[in-house]
Design a protein that fits this description.
single chain; about 625 residues; mainly alpha; 32 helices; about 65% helix
Length: about 625
């Protein structure tokens, strides 16, 4: 214990230390502490260690040197060094220091365990984490709230859900961190219904953190309808909407194609002066791009005070999915002129833009350019884009050679791009080879089986078609059901092929019949080739006339004024018949129809499509 004299003089160096702002000043004050004989006083020297630990990266080295000179460091000093390790993403040294602390017979306190348990999370040290849990019980911290919250977070991080719930159930007092950790943990591993049960059990008034955890859980699981319903409930309860909740909801709007709800959120952000940071700005741009309102996305992008790499990438990617390859290239050039360094995502988007617009030479150029000009080595995603580009253009031999010369083994995405090209260009020999390879790589991916089945069907190999279907049945693989969504008057309407769940189904089907009869006057002939076996299309038992996008268009024509744009989201690739029908419906009814399918956007207007039948 320090002497009364030392205690009386403590305030002099400590008072000076409070005004210290740099390591150079700290070292001067440290020398004064040594001269005053206070270097063995844990209270004083602990403040020196604390300054170094929370300061810049190199200062931790100085803190460790000071630590080595302390005869009997206390728990505060050990905790401070451990936090310094943790802040610098050095979990293993943090855990080892905890072990050293025990060996030196220094008792941990309630600030020790959150730190070392956090290190176990970051260092994937599950066994050490369990041992430390035992220590908390042995040393009397088993019911400490901070420690219990750290244990819940750690166990959830390791997917030890039962252990996390067990800690939660034993808590005498649960705070917002406890509830949020459990909800977020369940959500992280896909147990959204369990997360909802915890959410509904929460007794106190939920704050925005808890609401966001639950909404984010729905969004991460692609349960966008439920996210939207929870958001409406949240507004009814007058919960403060912060930027985190709004960013999550913008993702839900993007997933649903809910433009009106997305616009409302954007207006709310502007009206309440919410800070438009990089994440939120990018979420708004992404929402407008993926809801088919490209002009508004550009307006937001151009109005940003500061445009970070994520905003540029999002806008270039938006142009790519809308088939505006030349505009994407021009925006990339503008990005370079503003000295914003591109990253690998930039070039994925740029090469995708070239693929969707058949810009073969531009694609080749930028594939080389990314390395020559920016030192970015192509990753598997970039190779996949090039295979897609060459394959879509019918250059299957070159695409195959490109795969063979890749410096890494092709993954499912690369081979899938080539298989899709084989379907488009009806190369059954290569398609069969690639299709079988993909089925071996992804035995649970229904799209691979159906693509191969379609390739067989196009060449009349019905026995092989039957064998593929039989293999799917034996493996329990189900086709992904197709659906289409249209938002009208703030209500999201979802359709499946041949479905009659909509309350106005009778009127919708009558309108479909009227539409198809009318467009026959403009030359419509149903496209039946390959429909029964078309990859990723509606189920074969559903009549061709009542595919989901046709039902959505019919409702749109019933509910909107002449001249209004119809915006439809479809989860799978649009089939040939619906594509042809959509072109003629746009001409017959003088409407622009924007369809976002599983591959890209189609802008149908006056009998033409923006994809130029290249999709």
């Amino acid at each position: 214990m320090s002497s009364p004299h030392i205690q009386a003089t403590n305030y002099l160096p400590l008072q000076a230390l409070e005004s210290c702002s740099t390591m150079a000043e700290l070292k001067q004050f440290h020398s004064q502490i040594i001269k005053l004989g206070l270097s063995t006083d844990n209270y004083v020297i602990g403040r020196v260690v604390k300054f170094c630990s929370v300061s810049k990266k190199d200062s931790l080295i100085y803190a460790l040197k000071v630590f080595d000179t302390i005869p009997k460091p206390d728990a505060f000093i050990y905790n401070t060094i451990m936090r310094g390790y943790l802040q610098r993403n050095l979990p293993r040294p943090c855990i080892l220091l905890y072990s050293e602390m025990l060996q030196d017979f220094v008792l941990p306190n309630n600030f020790t365990f959150p730190c070392v348990l956090g290190a176990c999370c970051d260092g994937y040290a599950i066994e050490e984490g369990r041992q430390i849990h035992a220590h908390t019980l042995k040393l009397g911290f088993g019911l400490d709230g901070f420690t219990q919250n750290s244990l819940i977070h750690m166990y959830m991080n390791f997917k030890s859900l039962k252990e996390a719930k067990k800690v939660f159930d034993k808590m005498l007092k649960r705070d917002v961190v406890s509830w949020t950790s459990l909800i977020s943990g369940y959500a992280k591993w896909g147990f959204v219904d369990e997360a909802l049960k915890v959410f509904e059990l929460m007794p106190a008034r939920r704050n925005s953190i808890v609401w966001n955890a639950m909404i984010a859980a729905y969004v991460q699981s692609n349960r966008f309808h439920e996210a939207l319903a929870l958001f409406q409930r949240m507004k009814e309860e007058d919960v403060v909407l912060d930027k985190y909740i709004l960013a999550s909801m913008l993702s839900a709007c993007t997933g649903l194609g809910s433009l009106e709800q997305g616009k409302w959120i954007h207006c709310y952000i502007d009206k309440h002066g919410i800070e438009l940071d990089s994440k939120l700005a990018t979420s708004i741009i992404d929402m407008y791009c993926k809801c088919g309102y490209l002009e508004k996305a550009f307006h937001v992008f151009n109005g940003l005070d500061s445009r970070g790499i994520s905003s540029w990438n999002c806008m270039i990617g938006g142009l790519a999915m809308h088939g505006k390859g030349k505009a994407a290239i021009e925006l990339f050039k503008e990005m370079e002129s503003e000295m914003v360094p591109p990253d690998n995502i930039t070039f994925v988007n740029l090469l995708t833009a070239c693929a969707h617009s058949c810009l073969i030479e531009k694609g080749r150029h930028y594939f080389q350019y990314m390395t020559k000009a920016h030192g970015i080595e192509p990753k598997i995603e970039h190779y996949g884009c090039m295979v897609d580009l060459l394959g879509r253009a019918g250059m299957l031999e070159e695409a195959t050679k490109f795969i063979d010369e890749m410096p890494m083994s092709p993954n499912e995405s690369v081979l899938g791009a080539l298989l899709g090209a084989c379907r488009i260009h009806k190369n059954s020999e290569l398609g069969e080879k690639i299709g079988k390879r993909l089925i071996d790589l992804e035995p649970d991916n229904s799209g691979r089986y159906v693509l191969l089945s379609n390739i067989y069907a196009n060449t009349g190999r019905w026995e092989d078609v039957a064998n593929v279907r039989k293999l799917m049945d034996e493996r329990g693989v189900k086709k992904t059901p197709g659906f289409s969504i249209i938002e009208l008057e703030g209500i999201v309407n979802e359709f499946t092929a041949g479905g009659r769940a909509h309350p106005e189904a009778k009127e919708i089907y009558a309108k479909v019949d009227e539409m198809l009869k009318y467009i026959r006057l403009f030359g419509y002939v149903p496209e039946t080739e390959g429909v029964l076996h078309e990859a990723e299309q509606e189920e074969s038992e559903n009549p061709l006339n009542y595919h989901s996008e046709k039902l959505a268009m019919a409702l749109g024509l019933l509910k909107t004024r002449p001249g209004e744009t119809l915006r439809i989201l479809k989860n799978l690739r649009v089939c040939k018949d619906c594509h042809q029908a959509s072109k003629l419906i746009s001409k017959a009814y003088n409407r622009e129809i924007i369809v976002r399918d599983g591959n890209r956007f189609h802008h149908f207007k006056m009998g033409e499509c923006s994809c130029a039948d290249y999709w």
